């Protein structure tokens, strides 16, 4: 997997202070996409073992306490990203169990493939759906257009849609 940007301290993408990774690779090609340079899975930099270790180290850092990890892009659930993302989210939940994982994807939760579902098992909050320019609304919280849905997956027996716009 390649990544586009890594922010070890981020207060924009999700609640609280977070670690945020924007991965490369997206096949949704939404009109009006804010991040077209991430579409090519070969763009950006290789997400290697050293980077994975860095994410874990930043989440464990007690000097700046992070609430969790945000995964965006690009699309973390792009088929070419799934192995690396699964490895990462498993490691986060094993080594940093008090941290939450937020993930933004253009795929719809109900249509995820089995390998995508395997990643979702480790995700606490999933924001799904393509960006629809005609439904774009800058006042929305954590999403760009009103068709996108914020789902709380933290209890897999009781998945909830969150209404969190102010
Ligand atoms: S899913 Fe996100 S990154 Fe992919 S094209 Fe749509 S807005 Fe851009």
Automatic annotation (TrEMBL):
Keywords: 4Fe-4S, Iron, Iron-sulfur, Metal-binding, Oxidoreductase, S-adenosyl-L-methionine
Coiled coil (residue ranges): none
Keyword Cytoplasm: no
Pfam family name, one: Fer4_12
EC number: 1.97.1.-
InterPro entries the record matches: Aldolase_TIM, NrdG, Organic_radical-activating, Radical_activat_CS, rSAM, rSAM_sf
EC top class, as a word: oxidoreductase
PANTHER family associated with the record: ANAEROBIC RIBONUCLEOSIDE-TRIPHOSPHATE REDUCTASE-ACTIVATING PROTEIN (PTHR30352:SF2), PYRUVATE FORMATE-LYASE-ACTIVATING ENZYME (PTHR30352)
Name by which UniProt lists this protein: Anaerobic ribonucleoside-triphosphate reductase-activating protein
């Amino acid at each position: 997997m390649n990544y586009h940007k890594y922010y070890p301290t981020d207060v924009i993408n999700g609640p609280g202070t977070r670690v945020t990774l924007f991965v490369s690779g997206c096949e949704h090609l939404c009109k009006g996409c804010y991040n077209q340079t991430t579409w090519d899975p070969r763009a950006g930099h290789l997400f290697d073992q050293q980077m994975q270790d860095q994410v874990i180290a930043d989440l464990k850092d007690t000097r700046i306490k992070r609430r969790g990890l945000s995964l965006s892009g690009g699309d973390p659930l792009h088929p070419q990203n799934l192995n690396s993302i699964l490895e990462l989210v498993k490691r986060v939940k094993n080594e940093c169990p008090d941290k939450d994982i937020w993930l933004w994807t253009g795929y719809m939760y109900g249509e995820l493939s089995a390998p995508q579902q395997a990643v979702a098992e480790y995700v606490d909050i999933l924001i799904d759906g393509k960006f629809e320019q005609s439904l774009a609304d800058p006042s929305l919280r954590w999403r760009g257009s009103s068709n996108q849905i914020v789902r709380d997956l933290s209890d897999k027996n009781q998945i909830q849609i969150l209404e969190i716009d102010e």
